[in-house]
Each structure stands twice: as structure tokens, then as C-alpha cells.
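Hi U.,

Before I forget, here's the chain from the pilot set. I'm dumping it here mostly so it's searchable later in email.
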Amino acid sequence: MRLVFGSSAENSKKENTILAVKGEIVWGWLSSQGSWVDRTALHDAAYQGRLLNLKTLISQGHNVNALTIDRVSPLHEACIGSHVSCARALIDAGANVNVTTIDGVTPLLNSVIVGSVGCAESLLESGARPQALATCQPSPLHEACSRGHLKCVEALITWGADVDMDLPASGTPLYTSCRTRHPQCAKRLLDAGADVQLGTAMDTPLHMAAERDCTELVQLLLEFGADANVRNMEFKRAVEAAPPGSLTEGFLLVYEATPRILSHLCRQRIRECVGRQRLHLLPSLPLPKALRNFVCFR
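Structure:
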């Protein structure tokens, strides 16, 4: 049985009952997971973005950490609605920024799902963990990458999210960006030192970018040192993973037949020697502007 839950506080209880579909179980990540009977007035005000009402309820002593039976908090609701002011009011009143639902969903995850960088930054500034504690839980960085929410990706990286976190089901954030064809997110991850070779199992980000026929991503990965000769579990190189006759296949064939440019090899070596923890210092190197921009992939 698949469980699908309603996500609108305005719907009736009948409309938000559990629906059975296709024999699988899927828990919603958005709002209240279908548990409406034990929602509080604070939950509703947060979800609907009614700041004045929310502040009034808080001043009257309503518990900002009240949970539904599925452990959804008012802060979860404010974040899924991208209501930054409501989220900030709840946080200031002592809301737990790391509270998790029964599915491991945090307010931060809700924020990045909807692309609310304002909510995400408020949470991170207040002590929210930038990533899940276990690989079995949903990852904010993976979710931001899969949806192309670049500002959320940048915020999470700034606050220490692991750019190489490998989830059993989806691989690394870079692999996720390639799977969902988001070059800007991939570029931000690589700038932060993501390992260009880490994907999932033996499948590299380059394999996935080629399979998705995204030449822009393929070119980006190659510039950052991706190895076009690595074979995946099917014993295929990236060019063999690309759709036959595609633009990406043609690009990779030309790349393989062209000698590497020494300046690009030197850039890769410089970044390897500097190391991920010091990549942010590259722009301050006493180098000519053109050379500094080249080393920083600008």
C-alpha cells in the first residue's frame, strides 16, 4: 500500500485522509504528513504565514515546539511555506531547529525543497545541522542539488555541508546534480572541492552527465579533471554511456582524440596541492588577475 498525504492546511479532514495507491509506502516530506487531528493553532498560523497571529499565539504561551503525531513542528510548517518572518519568530521564541519528523525530515530540508534560502540561512545561523546525521536520512544538499536551488547549495556549503557525502540511493551531491542536469550546482560543488570522480558505486558523475546527454556538464567535469577512461560496472567509458549519435558522444570522441592542454593539467595539479580546505584562499593569491581567474575557473 502506498500512503500519500495531503499538504494543505485549508483542506478538510476528509480530503487529507490517507489514500491507498499502487501498493507502495511513500511518506510526504512537505507539511504535516497527513496528521491534521493534533495540529495546533500555531501550526496553522505558521503554515499560512500569518505572522501577527503567530506572534500573538507565542505571546499567549503556546508551545513553539508542539509536535503532531508524526513529529511535525510549527517550524516545519513555516519553512515549507517559505515564510521567513514566521520561521524567524519561532526560532527567536526557542523553536528546535533540528527537530525531525518520523521520516527524518528537518525544517532545513523543508526549506531547501522549496528553495527558501532565507529560511535556510536563518536555520543555519541558529545552529541547524547542514546535513543529516546518517546516510539513511534525507540530505538537504542532495535535495537542493536535485532541484537546482543554487542559493541553497551555496548556503549549505558555506555552513559546512559535506560536498562528497555519499548516499546509498543517490550517490554524491555532484552525481545528483548531473543526474538532474544542473550545471550551476555542479560548478559550485566543484569550486568547493567536490571530488570529480565520486558518483555512486563505479558510476562517475561524468558517466551520468554523458548518459543525460548534457554536454555543458561533461565539459565542466572534464575541465575539473574527470577521467574519461574510467569504466563503470557495465564496463563502459563515459563516451559509451552517451546516447549514440548524440552531441555529447561526438564531444567526447573529439576530446579523447585531442591531447590535453598543459595549462589545464597544471591548474588541476595546483588545486590538488592546495587541497579542499584551502581552496577558498585561491582568489587571494598574489598572481596576475588573468592567472588567478584561470586557477579559480572563472
